[in-house]
């Protein structure tokens, strides 16, 4: 499990050089961990061979003598215990290495926030990056006594969950016009600013000077941190027929939809039918959405809409996902949102 409380992160006064050093240090830690895993694997492999030989000898003696001696039982039992311990040590080492990999990825995202480099605005590049990020979302594989953590698949965040800087979130921003409803967009979390406010960065903004948006915390939702394995943790998936908010394909906006089918395997996607008045039956054709980009539908109105988005947000900017505009147009147009 990704240990948020133990992860290495960037401090407020860190710069690019500090970020690079921390990432390099973690790469070194990962290399050491992989070497350690290889050593443990060889040990457990030899242990299993010894156990198999003991079991074979046990069977032969039992077939010949028709009895089980205490020494035979003790030998097989001891080698079984050793094999279990060695296997558990290897599993623990692999889990720790996966934690380091997730820490490296998180630091790389934090480093991007420091760099302020111009983005590649090609639509295909951004969409490919989002799909790759979905594939890299770790699969939750718990032990026999491990319960599924918050943000595994469809499970909600913990009550006092703190979003990791640089991680992707769903952010509710004001519509482009006065009469347009708010839109849920894909953004990157930047910082907590006060007890009620935080800052996110529009992941689709070209001009980084206008990318940051200050929002009420209730308008920012963390995305799943782990994929749920349908064969092991099916109860952590959105059920068929449930109403969700999902990332519309080839866009960076979340829209209301209905789950038509759930993933069959750990790497499979949901099939979602989006609400879309431009289609004859009011629903889009079936579309695939990764576990990373699907959330329970949020139908709670803002208690104080005027205070939900701070003056530093891009008022009347690029979030034009109004119901009047077809999602088909949004997905096929070169710039899904008006710049």
UniProtKB/TrEMBL annotation:
Coiled-coil parts of chain: 84-117
Gene Ontology cellular component terms for the protein in this record: nucleus; SAGA complex
Disordered, as annotated region: 301-339
Transcription keyword on record: yes
Pfam families: SGF29_Tudor
UniProt biased composition (Low complexity): 306-323
Keyword Ribosomal protein: no
Domain SGF29 C-terminal, first and last residues per copy: 159-303
Keywords: Coiled coil, Nucleus, Transcription, Transcription regulation
Subcellular location: Nucleus
Source taxon at top rank: Eukaryota
The protein, known as: SGF29 C-terminal domain-containing protein
Species assigned in the record: Oikopleura dioica
Lineage of the species this protein comes from: Eukaryota, Metazoa, Chordata, Tunicata, Appendicularia
């Amino acid at each position: 499990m990704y240990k948020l409380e133990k992860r290495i992160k960037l401090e407020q006064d860190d710069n690019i050089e500090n970020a690079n050093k921390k990432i390099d240090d973690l790469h070194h830690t990962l290399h050491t961990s992989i070497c350690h895993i290889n050593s443990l694997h060889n040990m457990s492999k030899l242990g299993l061979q010894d156990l198999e030989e003991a079991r074979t000898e046990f069977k032969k003696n039992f077939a010949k003598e028709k009895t089980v001696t205490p020494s035979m039982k003790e030998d097989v039992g001891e080698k079984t215990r050793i094999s279990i311990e060695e296997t558990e040590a290897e599993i623990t080492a692999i889990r720790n290495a996966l934690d380091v990999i997730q820490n490296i990825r998180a630091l790389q995202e934090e480093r991007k926030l420091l760099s302020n480099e111009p983005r590649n605005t090609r639509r295909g590049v951004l969409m490919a990056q989002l799909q790759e990020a979905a594939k890299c979302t770790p699969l939750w594989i718990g032990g026999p006594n491990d319960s599924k953590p918050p943000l595994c698949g469809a499970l909600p965040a913990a009550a006092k969950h703190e979003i990791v800087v640089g991680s992707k979130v769903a952010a509710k921003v004001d519509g482009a016009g006065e009469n347009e409803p708010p839109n849920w967009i894909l953004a990157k979390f930047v910082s907590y600013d006060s007890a009620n406010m935080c800052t996110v960065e529009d992941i689709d903004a070209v001009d980084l000077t206008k990318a940051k948006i200050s929002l009420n915390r209730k308008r920012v939702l963390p995305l799943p941190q782990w994929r749920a394995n349908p064969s092991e943790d099916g109860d952590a998936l959105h059920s068929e027929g449930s109403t969700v908010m999902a990332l519309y394909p080839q866009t960076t906006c979340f829209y209301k939809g209905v789950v038509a089918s759930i993933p069959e395997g750990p790497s499979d996607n949901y099939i979602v039918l989006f609400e879309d008045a431009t289609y004859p039956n009011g629903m889009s054709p079936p579309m695939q959405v990764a576990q990373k980009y699907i959330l329970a539908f949020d139908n709670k109105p803002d208690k104080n809409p005027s205070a939900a988005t701070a003056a530093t947000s891009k008022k009347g900017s690029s979030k034009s996902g109004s119901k009047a505009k077809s999602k088909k147009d949004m997905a096929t147009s070169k710039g899904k949102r008006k710049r």
